[in-house]
Amino acid sequence: MKENKHNMIIKNIFFDFDGVIAESVAAKTEAFREMYMPYGEEIANKVVEYHMKHGGVSRYEKFRYWEKKFFGKNISNERTQELAQEFSELVLKKVIYANEVSGVKAFLEKYYKRLNFWIITGTPTTEIEIIARERGLTSYFLGIHGSPERKRYWTEYLIENYNLKREETFFLGDATTDQDAASFSKLHFALKENEENKCIFEDYKGIRFKDFETLEKQLKEYFVKRK
To answer: Could you give the CA distance from residue 87 to residue 96 in angstroms, rounded to a whole number?
Structure first.
């Protein structure tokens, strides 16, 4: 990753998980649809539409929003946890066995001893730890962090606790919450493109990648340009 001492240097990368490490966005979309289909196709479609526009928002926030929006309910924390548990049971195995984003394992293997890697995701921390372990990913990351804390919380927490330089840190994401966290913490951002986020990021002018072979080239070119 280092071009020469006169270029900016990447030292730290924050990875979103769904859609960035694993091709698991569709699995979660279908699980949300399945949960709300008993209330009719119209509501299920609106749930899916909201989920796709707010991909990195935690499931807890989504359930609170939907229950208020569609049923006029201000649900308790206990009920929110029940819905989240139901969702987790539907989706966990699907995510564990989802295909990897092309090239990610090779990228992690190549760079994890030279760079600092963390996962920051909207998935609950306890769940993403299980997923990462089952997928054989844990050893590549210094930490794996999820909800209920938001991504902004984790970017600032890691910067402070590891004394990271913002200009040496990238956030790889596929959702507006990833871009928001990167912007909030003044980090570089790279967008993992997919069919679901094509319209949302139509005007985005920064780094884009569909696989990690492309990302590696993009990052090298980016830092060469910024001598």
So the answer is: 14
